[in-house]
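Hey, resending since the last one bounced:
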Amino acid sequence: MSTDTPTWHTSGLQVTVHTEDNQPITLVRRLGAGGQGEVWEATGGRVAVKLLHSRDQAAAQRLAARLRAVRLLDLGGLPLARPIALLRPPTLGYTMAMLADMVALRDLMTPRGREDLARWYARTGGLRRRLRLLGRLAAGLAQLHSRGLCYGDPSPVNVMVSESLDFEQVYLIDVDNIAVASDLRGGAYVTPGYAAPEVSSGRLGVTSLSDAFAFAVMAFHTLTAQHPLIGDPVHDGEPELEEEAFAGRLPWIDHTSDPTNRSRFGISRAKVLTPGLQTLSRRAFESGLNDRTARPTVGEWCSKLFEAADMTLVCEQCSASFYGDKATCPWCAAPAPAAYVAAAFAHVPPTGSNVSGTAPLRRAVLVQQEAETSISARAVLPAAAEPERVLATIRFSSAGGLTAVNRWDRPLWIVGPGGGPHLPVEPGHESELPGRSGAIWELHFGSLYEPHRLLRFHRLTRGTDR
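The structure tokens again:
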């Protein structure tokens, strides 16, 4: 057997390939596969290999040229597995940096076997983790789009997420699909069921809005455990109906006026989608199904997903996460835990004869009792360079008190109701938020003499609490 051909070892079905500079790489675990190729984890877990399928030598040469071009793109700081080295012909593919202990996003979409849906949903991270993982994915795609590029083929096998529930890392691994927006590429591979109708039909090339359509499908599927285009008629019908649905010729499953493609599967939308996320879904799959300009951008998805994640609580009985406006856990019916709403406001400092003031923002974080709640830069800084950086944590004790811990590199300020005394909380220190006649003091992320944002706390009331 030629050394240029992948060698299959019988022990563990391992594969050995070689890079262009003749470095051997042993593949130990297949991470995903599709019509375009396969992705494998290599020995050590820090490198992955994409093996590409090719119809002929000319196609192989075009793909190799494309991979070399991708290596020259400005992809720094993005959650992308950039190509490191090309494989030696006749094997077509490349190596890429890989984070250890990751699984494909598809593992969070549908349970395997006959496992109870609610139990599987909680076991794989529940609602809050799904919202945050999808938010990180949307943020990464938005950054890519801001550089005039699009990913081309977002799909559940191309998105890797942390396997451990303790982490929320997201990585895009199939970077040979990256293209300049509106680049019409003959023979480009797209994943059926996730590609936008105009791309899968070959009418138009890939754009940021075709990426946004694929992301919307992944987000809806991951949150509801149901593909938005596969209703009961498609699920139970002939394969041709699935092609019709993916081509945009059938209504989506939750169409507001056409019920012909409803689904009996999945999770109740009210459990897992906020009104804002439901609105984005309607725009993506109803008005935006065949009109790409009507679709929400991935940036819009990013904002709504993180906002939704901040409004979740964790059930003290079943450990599932759910939206905190409900009086009981929708998964097990246990009473919802006590919580505070930390509502964000913009502080406007005094100028000349004008007095300072505040303006409410449409952003809030729920602070659960007997838990530590992280306040990210995304929630309290208007244009954060590191939006997921934790600036503070809030502890809500069983006795009812709130304590702020400064995780930032500059002071926080605790300010009394009505702009009274303001007390600094230095980096690395903590301080109790006093309560006066039931009013909790505010937590400011800046001095009273400069524009900034603040959190104003009040007890959450819902359902039978009112």
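The CA atoms of residues 344 and 455 lie 5 Å apart.

Sorry for the duplicate.
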